[in-house]
Structures are given as C-alpha cells and as structure tokens.
C-alpha cells in the first residue's frame, strides 16, 4: 500500500538543499502537469530545459519499456547496442569522432576538464594546467565544476577549491585574452549562459576564443548542457556561430527526462583517455541510451528544429505584448526556447516572486538568478499551450504589479 505524502514531508525527510514549489506534480501529458489536487499547470519550465519532448511522450515510453523488458544494466565491463547506436547518432550529427557517456551535465563537464588536463600533461608537460572560465557561468555541482563556474555563491563554502582556475568576464574578449597563455590547458564556455541570466555569446567573442586556444594550444570546451539538443533552434548552439569546439558537453534534453550526459570530442583529444583513465558505473547504460536515441531521432529533424524557431517568435511576440501592458522587463533575450526576461531595476530581486505567482495561476516558469524570469519549455509545445500559458502569466504579472504598487 502506497504511503500518503505531502509537500510538508519534504521539509521533514529531505536534505534542505532545495526549496521546491508548494505543490507536488503527479501526472503529465505534453506540456501540461497535474498536482495531487488535480490542478492543471502549463509547463514553461521544462524540467530546467530537460523535457524537450514534454511529458509522457509515446516514443520515449516505447523506447523505455521495450528496453526495460530486455535488460537494464551490466556495468562498463560490457557494451550494449543502444549506446553504440546513440554514439553513432551523435557522431554523424556533430563534429565529434568519439563519445564518452555519463549520467549528468556535471559529469560531462568534469570529464571534459579532466581530458583537457590529461591532454596538456601528456603533450606539453604538467606545468600546462591552467583553466580559464567565465564569471556567472554554471558548469555543475562537483567540486571541480563548481570551481569552474564563476559564481562564488555556489563554491565559497567548499574551499579549498581546485587550483589554477581563473575567471574572465563573459563576452569581454580583452578580459579573456589577459588570462589565456601558454600555460592554459583549457577554456570552458557556454555559448549562451543559462543559469547566469540567459546571456548569448557575441559571435566575435567565441571566434576569438577559438583563435586564442589555437594560438596557445589550449582545449576549447563548449558547455552545451542547457543549450544542446535543439534548445536554440539548431541541434547544438555552436552551429549558430560557425565556431567548432574541441570538446562539447551535452546532457539535460539528451535524455528528455531520463538521466544521461555525454562528452563529445575528436580522435586527437580522445586518444589520451586510455583504459582506466576515467569511468562511470551507470554511464551509457542501455535504458538511458535507448531513451536518448529515441529523443535524439525525433529532435534532429528539420521539422522540430524549425519549429523551435517558430515557437521562439510566439514567445517573444506575446512577451512583448504583455510587457507593453505590464512594463516589468528591461529586456527579453535568448535563442530558440531558452528565453530570459530581465526585470527592470525597480523590481530587482523579485523574479522568484513572479514565478510563485505564476504557479498560483497554473503556470510553471523558471528563474535565472534573482532578476531574470526564464522560459525553457518543450521544443514541441503546442500553440494552444503557449497561448494558455501566457494568459496565466499575464494574470501573474498583473497581480505582481498590483502588489508592489498598492
């Protein structure tokens, strides 16, 4: 018999590293969710850019249940058919020649940073170990990746941190140029900062980072955990820019909700990672790989990728109309279906309040820091779901403004 649970049980039983919403979702379909009381929500959060095909997509259910009826796990002493097929899909669709599978974006970035240091040590010597990252970046929660992320609030309580990591200003090439030198083994950058406020990179910035890495024999790592697998309207965001990294991390939408991550690279860099250099127990297991293969097949189509561009227009047009009526935002920015609304100075720090009001009206949204309301819905969200969601968002904006002006 299933035990009855409530939101209050979270505070009683769970380590308090999250502050989840007041409701508990129990069922989803498409871009709609229902809570324990049967209340409906439109999902503009997408599991933080994870649920690229929405909830309970038939193709994902089919892939998961078919593989579940065969076998689930063997460990890395054996390979399996789903993971090999998924590797070939990624290689055929990108610059990559080799893939390493893991369980999350943090693990993919951890592997990327380890590869960069190993490559530099093997080819140039142990003195070449510097890593250049960027302020306001987010690369994960392991000690290595939280150190690379340029947000002290996430790392300062865990000192001493791994050494030889410096942070330049994002989109400021002079700041980066001042730090990148012959002792730099890697530069890690998000083509669009997600947690840092939904800030796209300037094309010239990424192009010059590529040139600096070539000049100083540094590995250029693109963190596409949030921007990858169709989120921006291209399969990966690097394809917008015409700048090819040496290593790319991908996760989140890759599994559509089933945990999986991957590091993509070329033969040149993969060659230093030999048997025993790195590993993971669950990475590339057949369940995750089968689901990810189905997700990738559906997203890597002209129909879905062009549909993301169309949906971006639906979002920005409606946000512009809402902002004209309820002037809350200084800027609406982003690419594809990763969109951030930057609050005006007089409403600074209130993004969470707006997201909570939206939930009361039956809409799930995200924040990206205290000043940005973020949207990362399913890539195939319907026009009706977009319209209904924004009707609810408009009510939340009206309530917010009435509250701060009354």
UniProtKB/TrEMBL annotation:
SUPFAM superfamilies: PLP-dependent transferases. GO terms for molecular function: identical protein binding; N2-acetyl-L-ornithine:2-oxoglutarate 5-aminotransferase activity; pyridoxal phosphate binding; succinyldiaminopimelate transaminase activity. It holds the Pfam family Aminotran_3. It comes from the Bacteria. One of its GO terms (cellular component) is cytoplasm. N(2)-acetyl-L-ornithine binds at residues 141, 280. CDD domains: OAT_like. One of its GO terms (biological process) is lysine biosynthetic process via diaminopimelate. Its cofactor is pyridoxal 5'-phosphate. This is Acetylornithine/succinyldiaminopimelate aminotransferase.
